[in-house]
UniProtKB/TrEMBL annotation:
InterPro entries: Bact_HTH_transcr_reg (IPR050679), Chorismate_lyase_/UTRA_dom_sf (IPR028978), Tscrpt_reg_HTH_GntR (IPR000524), UTRA (IPR011663), WH-like_DNA-bd_sf (IPR036388), WH_DNA-bd_sf (IPR036390)
Gene3D superfamilies in UniProt: Chorismate lyase-like, Winged helix-like DNA-binding domain superfamily/Winged helix DNA-binding domain
Any GO MF annotation of the entry: DNA-binding transcription factor activity
UniProt region (Disordered), positions on chain: 1-24
Annotated SUPFAM superfamilies: Chorismate lyase-like, Winged helix' DNA-binding domain
Keywords: DNA-binding, Transcription, Transcription regulation
Biased composition range(s): Basic and acidic residues: 10-20
GO BP: negative regulation of DNA-templated transcription
Domain HTH gntR-type: from-to ranges: 19-87
Domain of life where this protein originates: Bacteria
Listed name of the protein: GntR family transcriptional regulator
């Protein structure tokens, strides 16, 4: 039997085949073990203590902590130290509202309005909504919160001709999905969604109360009714350190 090709799988359990592991990775593994022992929301010992215990320079320790912060496993609070972060919120990839998804996690959803306006559709948006460039849309932009913590920034665009009364019936802090279904009789039949990693623009990072250097998850979605007519175009930016997505697939 031929030997496995190690070049096709250069890493095994985080360790390169050549066996040379950066010190920061070793420290990271030890920190993960410590975090399991301490538990959620526990305060880590000081950098000085940890560097001494692990026998490494503080710069090496900071590199390991920085990776764990970017991954959302640790949270740093200026002047207060570094804490073990709670688990990420995992939102199902499904045709449902943010409200329902957050409630299913045992948290309280809410929204903070940023923008409610009429917006002129540029060619790309017009193509997605199958309207003419220059037509008016309704733009609803809100910060999504879970237990009052900013998690995402969502911008939704709807054709004004189709939904002329949406701003009259929408509760700004409520579910737009539910408003469209229950108040306007809209039936959602299909959605096309993409997810990619990006960095937040300064304005977005400010609204999300996060570091612009942390990775974000950008969700772009177009929803359709049973006749295949676009209902909405959504751009949602989620904090990568606090949010993930889950789906179930069957053969």
């Amino acid at each position: 039997m031929p030997r496995p090709d190690s070049t096709a799988r250069p890493y095994r359990d985080g360790v390169p085949e050549h066996g040379r592991v950066p010190k920061s990775h070793t420290v990271k593994m030890r920190l993960l073990q410590l975090m399991d022992e301490l538990g959620e929301d526990a305060l880590l010992p000081s950098e000085r203590e940890l560097a001494a215990d692990y026998g490494v320079a503080r710069s090496t320790l900071r590199a390991a902590i920085g990776e764990l912060v970017m991954e959302g496993r640790l949270r740093s609070a200026r002047g207060r130290g570094t804490y073990v972060a709670p688990p990420k919120l995992m939102q199902p990839v499904s045709m449902g509202s943010y409200t329902e998804a957050v409630r299913s996690m045992g948290l309280t959803p809410s929204r903070r309005v940023v923008t409610l306006e009429h917006h002129v559709a540029k060619p790309d948006l017009a193509e997605r909504l199958r309207i003419r460039a220059g037509d008016l849309t309704v733009h609803v932009e809100r910060v999504l919160l879970a237990d009052d913590e900013p998690i995402g920034l969502e911008s939704t665009y709807l054709p004004l001709d189709r939904f002329p009364t949406i701003l009259d019936v929408l509760r700004p802090e409520g579910s737009l999905y539910r408003c469209l279904q229950d108040d306007l009789g809209v039936v959602f039949a299909e959605m096309h969604e993409t997810v990619e990693t990006v960095l937040a623009a300064p304005r977005e990072a400010l609204l999300l109360e996060t570091n612009p250097a942390l990775p974000m998850l950008l969700v772009m979605r177009t929803s359709y009714d049973p006749q295949g007519v676009p209902i909405e175009r959504v751009r949602a930016l989620f904090r990568g350190d606090r949010m993930g997505f889950a789906t179930r697939m069957r053969a």
